[in-house]
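Q: I'm writing up a methods section and want to include an example of the input and output format. Could you take the sequence below and give the corresponding predicted structure tokens, formatted cleanly so I can copy it straight into the document?
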Amino acid sequence: MKGRFLRRMSQVSLMVLVVLAGAVGGLRSGSTGTLTKVTIGHSNIRNEIAALWVPERQGIFRKYGLDAEIVLVEGGRLMIQAIVSGTVPSGFTGATTVASAVAGGADAVMILGITNQLSYDIWAKPEIKSPQDFKGKSLAISSFGSSSHLATFLLLKHFGIDPVRDRVTLLTLGNETQRAQALLAGRIDGTLIDHSVAGRLQEGKYSFLGDMGQLGVPFINNALVSTRSYVRQNPQIAEAIVKSILEANAFILNPANKEMVTKILTRYLRLDVKKAEEAYKDLLPKVEKKPYPNMTATTATLEFLSATNPKVKEVRAEQLIDVSILRRLDQEGFIDHLYR
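A: Here is the clean output for your methods example:
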């Protein structure tokens, strides 16, 4: 089982190679003065990636001895492939991809829960006025088994829609920006995307059908993920990454830093000032002082995936999470000190 999964990992597509071409120099551990080079990935572009952008721009990674290079690896599946193969030792991706990887025999684990809540907005064509109108329609997700797939499943379930009975077609169209473009072009009837990247949909006549965060469903859309072997072999690097993100969260949550955080969101999300301010407001409720991965959400993820992947039934939620670094820092008072 493990061999089959690792063979798939070795067949990383050209897309990964192209995305990471400019990051190859940071893939080998090395030093720049007293700094250790490390590459950290993220599989989507939304406001909560500020947990990586802020420490990069504010020198927090360097404070903890890291020469960090932040790279985009499009899509959760490619991100988990890069993590498992060691091409990108750690990165942000969802619980669904971690669960699928572990079920396939790979070494993958969530260290921090970056986003422990549903943070998708429901968008549709102008003529669709309610999620009930999705019956017989097409909805876009990033890929099967992805966070957006699970979120769409939860949406349909909440409104009593059975994808088979009610003839709902799920189309795999890539990240949130690509899905928004597909909706703008009329190629799909609806999709779920984060508020911070809704952009042109908010300016047009498209139907905003609600914020899934209001459903109160535990959900890990982004977690800091690595492998147990990497954490074990590189404990100082892993701890430095965790410390950097924890300090970045404190920076983001400090009202005195609103202007700087907004500027960072403007830069990376390519937003005008007004949209960046909205993205900042949308970000604050997502950021947790003590970002432990949500166990309830992890269990729900396994239940969802096991319906189509029998191997997932053999995986326990505890296998997907290692909060030893976070717990120790918490017990030592490191996190509380950041907020004094």
